[in-house]
Amino acid sequence: MPLVLCYHAVSKAWDHRLSMTPELLLRQVRTLSQVRRVRVTFDDAYASAATVFADLRLMGAPVTVFVCTAFARAGSPIQIAELAGDDPEELSTMDWDELRGHCENGIEVGSHGVSHAHLTELADDELRRELVDSKAEIEAELGRPCKELAYPYGEHDRRVRAAVEAAGYERGFALWDCVRGDPYAERRLDLYSRHSPVRALLMTTPLHRFAA
Q: Helix 124-142 and helix 158-166: axis angle, to 10°?
């Protein structure tokens, strides 16, 4: 199984926890690729992530973008309380035309829900809409199956995982809170600008699992 990495925005200008310079990101991936087969994922479908797609393709690293469908309709900035007041330009997301173009170049697209909601806090019918509606819209817009979902904020529980399976997904990606052997709580390693390539490598070892 590949080591699945989780990133968000890619920017030299945005000094934010969710932002990574392209140079550092590529160094991290290159270093990890020397010891493990690597798959790279981007949550939120920030438009800036596309700046490293070509380089990742040259490295042979598969790329998946997890998109919130409400924002993809117009490439709108991510609108969640945690990012209120941040630069709208840095928060802009890929629209459906951009995502279709990336798919033609081998990028996979999965669901991040409709609105980047805290899924564990939703009532059953709201949870179902986040999962079912986002999957249906992705499939209608891109003309291909949407098999995977990444949990917003990495949040999930047994009820949410059961709903993801019932909605027809084949896999759900968590972050630190993975469940061994459960395809709906798959592990991802989330990396940030504080992680040097060597530190990222150490985080893949049992003694440093998900080190801060």
A: 40
Q: Which two tokens stand for residue 159?
A: 């009820």
C-alpha R_g of the chain: 16
Q: What is the pLDDT of residues 3-26, one digit of tens each?
A: 999 999 999 999 999 999 999 999
Q: What angle do CA 61, 92, 7 make, to 5 degrees?
A: 30
Provide the residue count of the chain: 212
Neighbours of 175 (CB within 10 A): 19
30 closest CA partner among 3, 59, 8: 59
108 forms beta bridges with 64
Contact between 120 and 131 (Cβ < 8 Å): no
212: Cβ contacts below 8 Å, ≥ 6 apart:
none
Prediction pTM value: 0.94
Residue 63 pairs in a beta bridge with 40
